[in-house]
# Entry
Amino acid sequence: MRIQRVEYTQPNNKRSQISYRGKLHLHKYNIFDPMLHYINKGAEVSRQRQHPISSFLSDKIKDMKIRRFSTRKSISAWYINPNNSENIIFYIHGLAKNISNYQNLYEKIVQDGMGVYAVEYRGHGANPKTRVSEKRLGKDIEKAFKNLLKETGISPKKVTVVGHSMGGVLASNFVAKHQDVKSLILISPMCDMHTVGERFVLNKKIGLGIPERIYTMSHKVKFIQWLQNFHFNGLKSLKENKVPISIIHSEKDPITTIAGAKRLAAMARKQGSLESVFWLERGNHDIDANKEDVLTHILNRIYNKKKK
# Structure
């Protein structure tokens, strides 16, 4: 496992190189909440990215159906715990993804003797189409966590929350309200709209599709910046957090930039909650084998487990 571990330094201004795969054609945008249209398009893509269940997990997944607040509609979740472990990883997935897309990660966690509870937001994956927003996704996470505790009887103190990409913001929001969980791990986390890769934001086919003049104006007008900070802002959540945090991020990530990850690390350090940071020389935005190894390394340390 090749890891570069460094201390916090000031973000540089180099432009990120885009390498995101997929076709997310989006022409509408809201300058005050640019992510709103994109997460709905991402939900549509996630429903088309269903992966078949691996042979290793086929007899280990408990497919949960969780009724949403004040509605008959439900969301999906996978509970994978063949070892009946009390150490549970509460997994919150990224934009345009679903719970079937991270099976290699689940396998490694289970093989190390821990359990996984992965929540799938409304409108994503196997769930029926519906409009989504940051607030609604947050409600789904809350409901899934309550279901996890109710169905398993496991203490929150045994649960580590892991969030990837957009799921990193949602995980930070969630943990800010649940300070009794054991730990928080952010993988390629989104910091805020101002640290998302520039070429990704401007690209009409695979990004937000914001016209360059509007994008430039949003960085110069303080009122617009202030309004945008109300949405998908991981920094704001970390100000309220005392739970130990670890951050994993690739230096060449073109979507959620290393500059944003280092701002999150700086905030966590200021609050006294930063446990560890891993800046990886290799990889882009997705969770590859290297990130999986780093994550399981952190989890084994958190739960004081010796790697076999």
About this structure: Confidence is low (pLDDT under 50) at residues 1-27. The radius of gyration is 18 Å. Strands lie at 61-67, 74-80, 88-92, 115-120, 159-164, 183-187, 245-250, 274-280. The CA atoms of residues 194 and 219 lie 8 Å apart.
